[in-house]
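User: These chains co-purify. Model them together.
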Amino acid sequence: MSAKKEFIPDWTETAPPDGSYRSIFKWGAPNEFKHPSNAWYRMMKKEFGMTDDDFRKRKDEGLEPVSISRKSAIGRADLARFESIVGKKNVAVDGYSRLRYSRGKTMEEAAELRSGRIGRVTDVVIHPRSKEDVRAIVAHCGRRKIPVSVYSGGSSVTLGLRPARPGVTLVMGTHMNRILEINEQNQSARVQPGMMGPAYEEALNSAPEKFGTKLRYTGGHFPQSFEFSSVGGWVVTLGSGQASTYYGDAYHIVLSQEYVTPAGDIKTLDYPATATGPKVNDIMKGSEGVFGVLVEVTMRIFRYMPKNTQRFAFMLPSWNAAVNATRDVVQGEFGMPAVFRISDPEETEVGLKLYGVHGTPADTFMKLRGYRPMERCLLIGTAEGECGYAKHVKRMVKKICKGYGAMYLTGFAAKKWEHTRYREPYMREDLHDYGIVIDTLESAVTWDNLHRLHKGVREFIKGRPGTICMTHASHFYPQGTNLYFIFIMKMESVKSYLAFQRGVIDAITRHGGSPSHHHGMGRMLSPWLEKHIGKNQMAVLRALKEHFDPNNIMNPGGILGLD
Amino acid sequence: MSAKKEFIPDWTETAPPDGSYRSIFKWGAPNEFKHPSNAWYRMMKKEFGMTDDDFRKRKDEGLEPVSISRKSAIGRADLARFESIVGKKNVAVDGYSRLRYSRGKTMEEAAELRSGRIGRVTDVVIHPRSKEDVRAIVAHCGRRKIPVSVYSGGSSVTLGLRPARPGVTLVMGTHMNRILEINEQNQSARVQPGMMGPAYEEALNSAPEKFGTKLRYTGGHFPQSFEFSSVGGWVVTLGSGQASTYYGDAYHIVLSQEYVTPAGDIKTLDYPATATGPKVNDIMKGSEGVFGVLVEVTMRIFRYMPKNTQRFAFMLPSWNAAVNATRDVVQGEFGMPAVFRISDPEETEVGLKLYGVHGTPADTFMKLRGYRPMERCLLIGTAEGECGYAKHVKRMVKKICKGYGAMYLTGFAAKKWEHTRYREPYMREDLHDYGIVIDTLESAVTWDNLHRLHKGVREFIKGRPGTICMTHASHFYPQGTNLYFIFIMKMESVKSYLAFQRGVIDAITRHGGSPSHHHGMGRMLSPWLEKHIGKNQMAVLRALKEHFDPNNIMNPGGILGLD
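Assistant: Joint model of the two components:
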């Protein structure tokens, strides 16, 4: 049983070859990896009935160079027109570009690319330099009825990027990736949509040096995909950051937007509130490219005071206690924690196991104090903002948690979580190399329906033998929260996995969850939209689509169930 | 000069006769009054060059019984249909009802009614008992192309209620005026739209007795019209309460809504946040009756902890200091004050005069300390919520204000303001009885444009000789605030007054203000909408109108500039 003798799989430590399928589906930076720990490895073997032999050879690594037989359907004249708009070097029709900018990060897409199966890809990739470029391209595509899709961060996990009807794909991150203005009086930043999370945050943090402001700022938006998602993507898919309980979701952080649509430009105004009728600004948020192309967005920004951050972690005796404690916190009228998350019993147990707490004196101590395995729940979080405010929020969280029988674990767990917060997705490729799927689905929920949703979805997932299901709530509101389901299993086939995935989405919606809390809808979840919001609300979305895009060229084919 | 000998006008202390014009235009409860103080009276004489003689005889009191010559245009068969839906006693075609439910509270409407001039009035007044009633009525009106308007609180100051095309008016307050459910887990209340402010708040405050809840709640929404406005009205006109800086505007407080529209029912869901595409819930807010009839709304509610309220008031040395201090407060990331308002130099001076501070030792003391008349600015506010939170917010407000040279005036002024907060509108009739107009217009503004807007609008208003102009900001956001202009003047004629009013709105929009921060648009402000949001956004609203109401029967004639 000595760890020394233990077999350890040969996890990949090599960047995918340039031009390979793997370079497209691999998460994150080519040279960065995060491998399962030995504890992880042991857990997988045990849970999935696998042996060391199953981990001796990686399968379907997708190291081959991309090869696309189907030629771009774009005509010579159209291509010339696009080249005249953006310049020759900003137009690409090679197979690799066409595939790369036609895929996001779903398991389905990864599995297809691993086996070299290529479905639909865009016909031409264009890197616009400005909103004027976008306007000219959309105008031309309108005249020629060529579909227009947008690729920005590329981190979609809802098939938001895989085109149903090939045409033009606009890549926003190449040139349209800057903060155009920080308005310090209004505490807002005017940003191009292709700016990626880290560049955006770094520019705000160093605003005095870069923009001559008096103070430093933060965007307050830190999704797990932070490093590989863009400001524009956050807005058009209604993303949420891990500190959203305090800073708000992208929905709340957007102040105004500018879109190029076939029906003309929409530029909304910067007022934080007006009583001038229904707000077109709202209608555009979450529109996932079906009304038009986001070309500029003005975001609310926040004072950056990282030294004030207060961290905390608690062990609660039960899921019920964790849910009630967090509800009490966010309904308590004393401000909001920033990061705030509770893990259900299985996620807590897996976490303790993977972080090496299982079987230690600390674990024994917890058990003795009545925090029992598969009942206890971990809560971690931070309080941010002005110093006295952050301290008071932490003090109140502590008081409420203690009232629910919590044990205070200091801020260490929160600090540890922060350090790995963006790393977890890297593990996906390691697992998949040996035929193991790790995937997630998530849902918004009102407080009064939380237990029903949690129980119902777990029942479905755990109904499949050998499936790990970890659940947490991580975005809190006085009226509800979200449930985020992570499931890990040995994949039999892509087809059977997709059937299982559909089953989970069915279970979510059947038990009163919304099909998405912050992943957007894409082509994966959109089939559930009409049932979710009803046909009369769908008819409103269709009327808007008809108005903005009567020829159905904007991201056509299934997004939001519009066609 | 002794006050004893001073002439005091005979302000009306009599409730308007039943059935009179005055019973329609008088603000508030028939038997309640608030008269100008002697200081007010002296100020008006001085500012408007009037003498006691001008105040010896009230003019155009509108005490005559309403008499309408034009008969209801509604046909016998339609009437019978309405009676069969709601019952005979819930349908009225008498002249008084038709006029009463066709008028709001603008100066223009009051002036017309005082002189017995009657323009368009509705044809039939219906008091629906349920959403099923509303559905049947809208269906019938759809078939017969009869216009449908809604009357709820009746406090519109934007000509939201004066029909452009007579038809049916639905009075929501008669029967549809209850809380249907308090969901304590979700902290939300499902409410019928005709419920008035005080009944709503009282029911929430006494929720344990009335609904068996564990805690007491507040709606957090206290507009100046609180006593005579309805929950539904707040939602469809995008109102704001005086504590909105903490609780949010009606826009934020709405969780979900149910509408009856000619295109079918819209019932949005209770999720506090989802990523399921553009939200129809948003599109309906502020729709002022042009898409459909609001029949139910679910509002976020808040824990009621009145004992925790912290009050404060400061004198700041200048408007600039007041603006910068409040901006610093709401951008400070330590929570938000609830009531929060700053008066500009003229409003501050008028306030000191009217509250008898002028010329007292306190005034001398302030002047000696450098708070000079027509420069100094009053700030008052409260902090609410959990006890430690409220105290911390007050502490921080104090710290910031002191940094801008403020003198702390204790919480007394805030307390005094609270006691008269809903009383001011009562004075309008007293003034108008002697030919003096007091009226208001208000605007949303971003911080970076506040001084330009304030200066530009004041220049226009003060350009009219003998015009008092008091301005305050009273709804704060990190990105901006509102400016609320109160002007008082001797009215030459209704026509010249309306020309002046149009001039003020022009000045507001010309200097970058929005035409409305929380009064809604109505028929008064809607002509400025297209210029404000641009023709492409107007086209979106028109597309929505066409979808919901292709026959243009819902509140037709000018609302939101749609026809």
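The radius of gyration of chain A is 24 Å.
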